[in-house]
# Entry
Amino acid sequence: MPEYALEVQDYSFSYGDTGVNVLNGISFCLEKGSFTALCGVSGSGKSTLLRAFKPELAVAGESSGQIRVLGDDPYSLSPIESATRVGFVMQDPENQIVTDTVWHELAFGLENIGMDTETMHRRVAETAHFFGIGGWFDRRTTDLSGGQKQLLNLAAIVVMQPAVLVLDEPTSQLDPIAAKDFFDVLERVNSELGITIIIIEHRLEDVLPIADRVLFLQKGGKLSYDGDRDGFVRMLVENREGFDAALPAATRMGACLNRAGLSDGTNAPYPVTVREGRTFIAQAVEHARETGNPIESRPLGREVPADDVALSARDLWFRYTKEMPFVLRGVDFDVHAGRIAALVGGNGSGKSTLLSALSGIRKPERGRIANPKKLHVALMAQNPKMLFVHDRLVDDLLEWQDLGKYSEKDVDDMLERFGLAEMRTRHPYDLSGGETQKAALAKILLLNPDVLLLDEPVKGIDALAKAQIGEILTDLAVNEGKAILMTAHDLEFVSEVTHTCSMMFGCEVTCTQDAHGFFVDNLFYSTPTARIARGTLEGCVTTADIAASFGVDEGPHHG
Amino acid sequence: MAKGLFATYHPAVCMLFFLTAICFTFSTQHPVYVVLTCIMAGAYLVYLRGVRPFLRSLGMFVPMVVFVGVLNSLFNATGATSLWKWGPFSVTVEGLCYGLAVGGMLVAILLWFACYNEVMTEDKFTYLFGRKLPTISLMVSMISRWIPRMVSRGHSVYDSQEALIGCYDQSKTGKMKRSLRMATVLTGLGMEDSVQTADSMCARGYGTTSRTSYARFKWHTRERVVMGLLLVMIVVNIVLLVIGTGSFKFYPRVSPIEPLWGYLTYALMLGLPFLVELERLKR
# Structure
């Protein structure tokens, strides 16, 4: 029996036409039953590497070196063997689903490999049971939530009993709670079924606690780290190559305090989870007291620019059809110029609907929206790809030239501002997640709107792109006086970028507060840092707050 | 079981039953037969859906019977017993009767189709025809996933561009242009999606060997018995229908309606879903 589930020896890959290596001499072996996280900046060839394990999905190009799955070259396997040995879960929950019902989707792979009915029933039943799908076995796939869809995709792969499960950013399109559920199930697949897992994931917060091995790909496709979690964290913290912004909040806090010499256990592993973070910070506070370092308490609340109403909604009631329940119930809400505001809350709490009502494309059944200064309102929908129609990014940005009365130079400036100048002639669909968001924002800004309503502008993008978008939004609000309202699930991003924050629940806006006070006062719907600091250091919402409490500078994340 | 026991039978049995009901309803306008099939279809629909939804759909059906009846009697002047004359229109009793019978027949067919929809869900249909034609059944399944997705996609694309550029041009031509743009965006997104869906299919072994089917239904003794019963009843009813109502005519005068054994066997056959329910009485 082969010792390893997956062996990669000196593997290099280049797209045929350019001759530039996307992957460079990569070697590693994964033990059977291991759980490995594959990390790397965007464009480092992570997806290309994973796809090479499955001939059906492999990217066309030239490769050298060897890949072995359970000791065999994947290209030497029979088609059925090849389909079942390696399972692949992709990013988009929607596009992977082939059939119209849940049971059919589960059976799809087994039907393909010609399994007899009796065995198929048994396998499907077992799998549905393991994944807790029994309750929605007969549902139509269109009616499922995003989280359910991705669980179904996972189940539809696991039902084929793969030896190795490969996942390419499976949770990037999910909200945090659905993502947590997905990881819980994934951990069970690994620990209870013993399936070897390798996963690309941006949410280090979720994946690091369960991964027993981490691989890190550098730009240029070189494997620069292969080892356990603690070593990986240490490497990122010490090299600070820009990827450390993606580390969990607890780790960044620990790193910052360690650098300032404020913790006693400098050689202890960095904290990764909130629980570890709480222990770590309690020790640091203790240590600071002993050494006589002062701990400043943070001012509660954040300065909010003066009221300057751009849009005001009063007593909004809205439902999509008369038969359906109300999605907005008596919502009062103001959008202010020169401010960034966020709407947070669970799925189906009415956030997106409120945005579209404010934008004017949905007419409320009761109540009204006032736009006293006749400002130009623009809404960016959740899927930014929908904004593009042309083959080149630059043509797309020029599309509304006549409407927005802007010049080609404006487009170039905008591309420059968003760091997209290199992508000028790329096809908009070929951009990475973060680039697509930025490009969509650029296209909208060319129309020069006064009020920007953004639906999930940082969904599924990496820490670096998130930071860039945050900077641009701040610039737009503070320096150009634009009114910005966004919905977001990423509370850390919201706490760092916004002035005010409102919580939506049960189709109402339940509270609005300055973003700092909001996260301090919330008990558990708050940032990881706030949950780490609660009870030990009051008034801390971000890593920078904690650093400031100890009187140290957090330092730049990148560059 | 909200839908009754008959819906739990093998799709082939259900399919044959509905085919029988609809074909028989089509093939005779004998008033008693029409009334019987209407009653049976109506009763079964009430059983499947409940009284209220049934009454709501009646609101649509009754005007239809009246409409067809009146229309036929207006334009069809054959028939001996004249009721009244008005210009070129002449209404006869026979014409009216025939019209009502045809109207009733149409209603019965619609009612049977409504029942069919409740019982023969899509998965049963694809099961029935899918095993012989796996590609077709997969296609049906994929299309029925694709259509609602495309529709909701279309709405979001339309909304997103309306929210951005709708304010510049609210004219008809502006809206037309934007609809065209929406179609372009949808095509682009659709192609992008289908590449990924194709990947997902290949990754799960599509095309590696001849497909089998996840059969959700089995043949039990009950299925065989009911199927046999149904086949016998079909034969008996065809014979009785031909013998018993062969001489029945609407024109020039409506033939007298005679008591026939056929009525009973017809009612029994169409009442198969209820006969099946008798099993519950055993307990």
Summary: The first strand of chain B starts at residue 82 and ends at 86. Chain B has a mean pLDDT of 85. Chain B has ten helices and two strands.
